[in-house]
Automatic annotation (TrEMBL):
Superkingdom classification of source: Bacteria
Native organism: Nocardioides aestuarii
PANTHER family, per the entry: MITOCHONDRIAL RNA PSEUDOURIDINE SYNTHASE (PTHR21600), RIBOSOMAL LARGE SUBUNIT PSEUDOURIDINE SYNTHASE D (PTHR21600:SF44)
EC number, UniProt record: 5.4.99.-
Keyword Iron on entry: no
InterPro entries hit by this protein: PsdUridine_synth_cat_dom_sf (IPR020103), PsdUridine_synth_RluA-like_CS (IPR006224), PsdUridine_synth_RluC/D (IPR006225), PsdUridine_synth_RsuA/RluA (IPR006145), RluA_PseudoU_synthase (IPR050188), S4_RNA-bd (IPR002942), S4_RNA-bd_sf (IPR036986)
Protein name: Pseudouridine synthase
Length: 311
């Protein structure tokens, strides 16, 4: 629950005739915008009555303010997330199947559920290495991307796997349903990726972007779309989605990166058809190669079935 700080005081003589939002800002050290928001949301009363922000205060008037505590956007909030499956768990790592609509860790602008919040609520103790909101995290999946991922429980595992991802020795395999038919059916996309120049929530192929390499092969070719198996050599944000758009074969349902909204509705998708199906690496304790798999969730399986039936 949100905590609320209740404060009551009399308007001093020095604020005679001031607007209530300005008086509030000066009395409590708030920004003028924050003060105006509190007034507009009904958290401020003068002599027992709610007022508009333009109300002029008089000395001796009783000012009552309820100030909700602003939550830290990076705070890890323990919360069980329905749909997260534990694929593997030992003293060093926990491997999960992440559902769509869940972020890996908290970030500014995201108020939804997170993987680290679920693990905290479920009693998992994970490594403390890394920034506080993403301790133990050595890889990420987009909120709109589902599939298999690993989180480190020990500091030793964190160090080794962080290095493995950095050296690109981790095998990351995705399946993507893309519009049309890539030509050639099998290939490599080597194109640098940077933040979009006009939309800061998007990325794009940019001459001054970071080195990004995606390998793909066609598993199934259908009338409207192709199912690809994708191996990431690098791990840039939105890499597969950006590279598929650059090929003019965006992921089905990925409206952010140029997908056809009509086709998205036809297959019943509200997110990109992209799933992390397999993750392979050397186990940080044993050194043995291990591999973990994830099956398609219901929404992606349904969309693929519709595409297959349309042939």
């Amino acid at each position: 629950m949100t905590e609320v700080d209740h404060r009551t005081l009399s308007i001093p003589d020095g604020l005679d005739g001031e607007r209530v939002d300005a008086a509030l800002a000066r009395l409590f050290g708030l920004s003028r915008t924050r003060a105006a928001d509190l007034v507009a949301s009904g958290h401020v009363k003068v002599d027992g009555d709610a007022v508009a922000k333009s109300h002029r205060v008089e000395p001796g008037a009783l000012l009552e303010v309820s100030i909700p505590t602003e939550a830290d956007p990076l705070e890890v909030v323990p919360e069980i997330v329905e749909g997260i499956k534990i694929i593997h768990d030992d003293d060093s790592i926990v491997v999960i199947d992440k559902p769509v609509g869940v972020a890996v860790h908290p970030s500014p602008g995201w108020g939804g559920q997170t993987v680290v919040g679920h693990l905290a609520a479920a009693g998992f103790r994970i490594a403390t290495s890394g920034a506080s909101e993403r301790q133990g995290i050595v890889q990420r999946l987009d909120v709109g991307t589902s599939g298999v991922m690993v989180i480190c429980k020990s500091e030793h595992a964190y160090s080794l796997l962080k290095n493995a991802f950095r050296r690109r020795t981790v095998d990351k395999t995705y399946h993507a349903l893309v519009q049309g038919h890539p030509d050639p059916f099998e290939g490599t996309i080597d194109a640098p990726i940077g933040r979009h120049p006009r939309h800061d929530y998007k990325f794009a192929v940019m001459a001054d972007g970071r080195h990004s390499v995606t390998h793909y092969e066609t598993l199934e070719a259908h009338r409207f779309a192709s199912l690809l198996q994708v191996h990431l050599e690098t791990g840039r944000t939105h890499q597969i989605r950006v590279h598929m758009q650059a090929l003019k074969h965006p992921c089905v349902g990925d409206l952010t990166y140029g997908a056809d909204p009509v086709l998205a509705r036809r297959v019943g998708l509200e997110r990109q058809w992209l799933h992390a199906v397999r993750l392979g690496f050397e186990h940080p304790d044993t050194g043995d190669y291990v591999s973990y798999d994830s099956t398609y969730p219901d929404d992606l399986q349904h969309a693929l079935d519709v595409i297959r039936d349309a042939d």
